[in-house]
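re the bet — no i am not wrong, look at it urself. input seq straight from the record:
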Amino acid sequence: MRVKTVPEEKTRENSISVICNLINSQKAEGILIKHPSNIFYISGYFGEEGYLFVSKNGLVNLYVDGRYYERAVVETENKNINVKCFKELYKDIALNLQTEFKLKSKNIILFESAYFSYEEYLGFNSELKELVFMPARNLLSKLRCLKSEEEIKNIKQAIYIAEKSMAAAIKNITEDFGSENKISELSIANQYRINLLNMGSSENVAFETIVLKAERSAMPHGIPLADNIINDGKNNILLCDFGAKYNHYNSDETVTLFCGTPDEKFTDIYKTVYDAQQLAISKIKPGLRFCDLDKIARDYIDKNEYGKYFTHSLGHGVGLDIHEYPFISFKNQDTIEEGMVFTVEPGIYIKGFGGVRIEDMCLATKNGAEILTTIKKDELKNFI
């Protein structure tokens, strides 16, 4: 199915145009960008120690130190990016900004305050003495939310790599359940990382892999342990949250399994979470507010008397960052747009018992949601 997304050949051009509008709306001369994902999206450069300046007229300078200059030139080729090499970080960039863009006293320069360290702020502010160095905060948060066909292709490949890698990592659990060959949470997570690299992931993990057994699954973001054995022959919950990265784009998915025969309580909780997720996914459409989407799942879980155990928002955008706009929470009154990619991941976490989270990635289309992740969550055996 072909969906309406941002045309690939216009992605960068449109983003710079949007940035220029934002700059001019603040009566500023330009914005200094630090976040690597935003720099890559605009320029094609994904190295370290980079700063990107976009002027109010759409001129773009990329500042890197000598270690990354040649790489930056290659990665920004044919993108009309002026690559500048600095020796003294704050002094050289500030001098270039003042001379090349003819900045005057009291001119405003915006900066991505969410990603600048306090030391960086002080460094630039001390060199830009006659200019106003103004925080932009979330000015660019929506820059990358509509995905192009190429971006969706990369995300789908990241999903494929992640799913195959996790399926292979946990295969031994079913084969060695109750055996003397002890398989721990950490050993599954480590095997998963190895599988990712063998499958072609750009990095060994998109984020820290979560593999949690039994009561520890009640921690939404717990850390796998080497001494917590999974295949000990006992009936227990196993929560796995995992992702991969392909061509800089991420995937994010959670499955909750049960080692052995699930009891009635787990079955009831699992069904509640699954039904809440499927209800929310069925309501996804352009124009629906994110806060209302969150409420749909939350109200269903609350109706089934587990409301106090659903302790986080319903989901988040995924792309160049594992967590990016849009955020599906009760606070976000923005509306869904065609071409957005985000997770839907309700969960119930009960201390002393365990937790269930079911997470899929969805693409918003004009006709509803296309579920990008492929593991079927209605029957656990489909994953194993």
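see?? Confidence is low (pLDDT under 50) at residues 1-5. told u. also The chain has two domains: 8-135, 149-382. so pay up
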